[in-house]
Structure formats: C-alpha cells, structure tokens
Design a protein that fits this description.
The chain has 431 residues and is of the alpha+beta class. It is built from 16 helices and 11 strands. Helices cover 44% and strands 18% of the residues. The strands form 2 sheets. It has a 6-stranded mixed β-sheet with strand order 1-2-6-3-5-4. A 5-stranded mixed β-sheet has the order 7-11-8-10-9, with helices on both faces. The longest helix is centred in the N-terminal third of the chain and has 17 residues. It is globular, with a radius of gyration of 23 Å. The relative contact order is 0.16. The N terminus is likely disordered. It comes from Methylobacterium oryzae.
Length: 431
C-alpha cells in the first residue's frame, strides 16, 4: 500500500469513528461539532447561519452576499485597515460567504493565536462597522465584476437558466445581484439583513484541531454568545424546476455555445438522495467515467467538458448539467445527452457499471477530509442539513447498499419523461 493510500485509509478510519466528532454545548445554547486533533497546532472553525440570498429584499438581489463581503471590512473600534492588519499580524484566516440559503464563514489560526482569532470573529459578527467608504468600495468591486461578466456566455446561460427554472421565486435571482440591484442596496438594507440572519439561535458550528472541549466551549461563548437572537426569516416556498422541455437561446456572437440543462432533483435530506447521487455519478458526475463524458467527449469529440451535479437548496432540488460546443453541433450534443438519459430511464445501468460507481464514491469519500478546514466545512454542512453526527460513519454503507431498484426509483423521480430545460448562450444552429 502506498503512502497516499495509507493516509487516505487512516483519514477515513478517523472521521468514521463515532467517538471522534462530539457535541460541545455552551450555556447560551450554542452547539458545535468538535473533532479534537493534536497532531498540528492549528484550529479550523466553520459556521453557517440559516438565511442567505433567498432573503434579499425585492429589487435588491446581492444584499446577503454584499453583507458577507463587508463583515471583515472593519468591526468595533477597528477600521477596515486595522482589522486586516490584526489578522495578518497573526496569520489568521477569516472569511465569509453567502449562498442561497445561508451566510457562513471560516476561521483558521494557530493555537497560540486562538484568543485573537476568536476576538476578531466575535467583533466581525456582532459589531460590523459597515462604514460608508467600505460599503462603496465593496459595491464598486461587485459592480466591476458584474460588468465584466456581462458578456460571459457561462454566466449569462446560468443566470437565464435559473430565471426560467424558478421564475417568480427567490431562487431565480442571482445571488451576486445585478448592477442595478447592487446599486440600490443601502446601509439600512445591510443592517436589516444582519439583524435577520446573524443571530445566536441560528448558527451551526464545527471545530477541528488542537483544542479541548472546555476551551472550545469558552471560545464559542466569546465568538457567538454576544449575538442577539436572530430576527424572523421570510418564508421561502417550496418549488421545482419549471419549463421542462423548453429550449432558450441567449443570443451572443460567439463561435461556441455554452449550454446549461436541468430537470428535477432530490434534496439531500430525502431518503432517495444517495441513490440519486449514485445515478448522477453514472450519468455525468464521474469526471472521466460518466456516460456523458464518454459519449459526448470521448466518442464524438463534441465538447471538452460535460457533466451533471445535484443541486440541493432548502426549498428546491434539481439535476443540473453543463457543456459547451460549436454552434453547429449544439443539436447533436443535446441529442446525445437526451439519448443517454433515455437509456438510463429505460434500462438503467448494468450491474458492473453500478458497482464501479459505488466503489469510486466510497473509495474517494475520505479525500474530502484531508485537511482540518475540509473536515470542519463537511461537518457544518451535515449539521446544517440536520443529517446527524453519525452521517459520515453511515454514508459509505448507504452508498454500498444502493440497488438497481433504488436506481430505477431515483431515475423516475429525477428524469421522469426525459424532458429538460435547456439554455444555450451563443448562436446555436437549429435550436
């Protein structure tokens, strides 16, 4: 066995042990999933607050993402420059991000700088300055990025896809916003978003590294204990992918069309998610072994890349795919993709194909846990989805247990009659 294989096996055994990840709960009711590892004198923290871009005010898409970018732009008595200098002086890594359903972040530091890192995190969360000059600087950066993307076929195809798939729903809005919506965001909007989302009762935390349970509990109190209870979130109604069977062209004068396609999906919390995940690997999730990679790229040379993935939001799920090809070959590429989906609906994978998919998915799982930061982010996502602390230990067994009957059931739920919503940005011939 090679050194790499040994490390992977050791990692898998470590993260699968039910005694490795343990809950740590503080007096104010903040709970973290804790993995103590004294091997390296570092601590990695990941956290997520329920409520993200789906909570953006009407006409002000990008508000949650703008807030996330501003949280480390000064806090408490520290201006943006002073805050960043404090981080840099101790090599502390602190970052924030916003997705459709959550605002989250991560903190990584040496053990000897843990007090400083926790103090800066607490300031950023509880007392962000949101200074006018910082707001305008970040706004300008976001708008510059949005303008740069205005002629990007991939961005335009993706945005149009979500607009068609979830028309009238918060998920239809781009999480980064538009030039117009970002321009309209005010400091009051950001303050209201902060009050609604960044609250003590809405946070999930995972901590990995050389820190004991008692020390972690004290750190959690300092980082999150001063936060008020979060405000009430707007209800995000359940929805599904609309316009199946529709084909949309975003006209761009480019020689190659960028394609986005999608159909129904299965959310992570659903009992059929694991079968759907295995099915997706067979269709387009496997980097070099999937059916779409073999049929679209290897056999026909239609595209350099092609694939699919499962998208699981709080209130919607879908199977989402991508490729790009010459304008005159778009119809052929879509025909091949549709044929492969049809074959899986009619016949499913053979037993050998199914077994190879399961072997790969179980064997590669540990690679997502090869650093403290990755482990923390995996744990906090599992906590956010409420899958249970033992999910890591159960996951490979669930994949291995997937049967042909499970695959057929997942195919019926995701592929249905094979109709897809397709968006092509370019000048596809005959679409």
């Amino acid at each position: 066995m090679s050194l790499t294989e040994t490390l992977v096996e050791t990692t898998a055994q470590t993260i699968s042990s039910p005694t490795t990840a343990l809950p740590v709960t503080t007096a104010p009711g903040i709970e973290a999933w804790h993995v103590e590892s004294p091997v390296v004198p570092m601590i990695a923290l990941a956290f997520t607050f329920e409520g993200g871009a789906a909570q953006d005010p009407a006409g002000k898409a990008g508000c949650a993402q703008m807030l996330a970018r501003l949280l480390d732009e000064g806090a408490g008595d520290l201006t943006s420059d002073l805050f960043q200098e404090r981080l840099a002086a101790r090599a502390i890594e602190l970052s924030f991000h916003a997705g459709a359903d959550a605002v989250g972040g991560s903190l990584k530091m040496l053990v000897k700088h843990a007090d400083e890192g926790i103090a800066l995190l607490a300031l950023a969360l509880a007392k962000p300055r949101l200074d006018p000059d910082a707001i305008e600087r970040v706004r300008a950066q976001i708008i510059a990025g949005l303008r740069y993307q205005q002629n990007d076929p991939g961005v335009l195809a993706s945005r149009r896809f979500f607009n068609e798939a979830f028309a009238g729903h918060p998920y239809a809005r781009p999480s980064s916003g538009t030039v117009e919506s970002v321009t309209a965001i005010t400091r009051d909007d950001l303050l209201a978003m902060h009050a609604r989302i960044i609250g003590r009762g809405r946070v999930k935390v995972a901590a990995v590294g050389a820190i004991g349970a008692e020390q972690l509990a004290e750190g959690l109190n300092r980082a999150f204990g001063a936060l008020p209870e979060a405000g009430e979130l707007k209800a995000v109604p359940r929805t599904e992918v609309h316009e199946l069977g529709k084909r949309v062209v975003v006209d761009l004068d480019v020689p190659q069309s960028v394609i986005r396609f999608g159909m129904a999906g299965v959310p992570w919390r659903d009992p059929d998610f694991i079968p759907a995940y295995v099915l997706n690997h067979i269709l387009g999730g496997g980097a070099f072994t999937s059916r779409l990679f073999q049929e679209v790229r290897e056999k026909r040379g239609l595209a350099y890349s092609v694939g699919t993935s499962l998208v699981s939001h709080r209130s919607a799920a879908m199977t989402w795919g991508y490729t790009a090809t010459k304008n005159e070959r778009v119809g052929e590429a879509l025909s091949v993709i549709g044929d492969e989906i049809g074959r899986l609906i009619a016949d499913g994978p053979d037993d050998d194909e199914l077994q190879k998919a399961k072997d790969y998915l179980t064997g590669s799982y540990a690679l997502g846990f090869d650093t403290s930061t990755k482990i923390a982010h995996q744990l906090v996502q599992i906590a956010f989805e409420e899958l249970g602390m033992d999910y890591i230990a159960r996951r490979n067994a669930m994949v291995s247990a997937v049967t042909q009957a499970d695959i057929r059931r997942a195919a019926a739920r995701t592929f249905a009659d094979g109709k897809m919503l397709v968006v092509a940005a370019g000048r596809p011939v005959g679409l």
